[in-house]
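Sat 14:20. Reprocessing the chain from the morning session after the first attempt stalled halfway. Input below, unchanged.
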Amino acid sequence: MTKLISALGQFAKAVAATMMALMFLTFVLQIVIRYSARLDWLPAQFPILDPTRYGWTLEFCLFLWVWLIFWGNAFVVRDRDHVIFDILYNAVSPTTRRWFVIIAGVAISVGLVLSIEPTWAKFHILRLKKTATLTAVFGDGIRMRDIYSIYIFFLVAVALRYAWAAYRAVRYGVAEPDTDADGASLK
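Finished this time. Tokens:
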């Protein structure tokens, strides 16, 4: 099971790295086109550098940014990588900490799961809307709903992570401050 989880984690990191690389390459393309657009003779010599063909790059970068943020926070960023305010958490007894984790985990999980249906209902109208410029490159298949659909994966993944944290707190208790869930020191 740990090999499967590790493989899925590596896959999630590879997807995030690919999105970041694509975003960087598209950004570099934007810069090249922006500065070559000042040279009127260049598109005549090299039609591929015609600046009117690259309106899609901005929307593609925004698409990748949205996906990168929600994908990364759902599948790549670890809990210990987040900024936390744990003064109160560290000041209370392990039993109270355990209840903090259980209550917070259940509340966050329930809140996120309950928000899936209203979110999807709002996405329903987005199935009709096309993107402004991505259809020129990727065809008619990409709709606005597809761009924002990563948010549903984010809601499910984060709800499961907090539900798992609550389950582990019920079953095994909580780790001491400055250690991870397996008891290894974070210092």
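Residues 80-187 form one domain.
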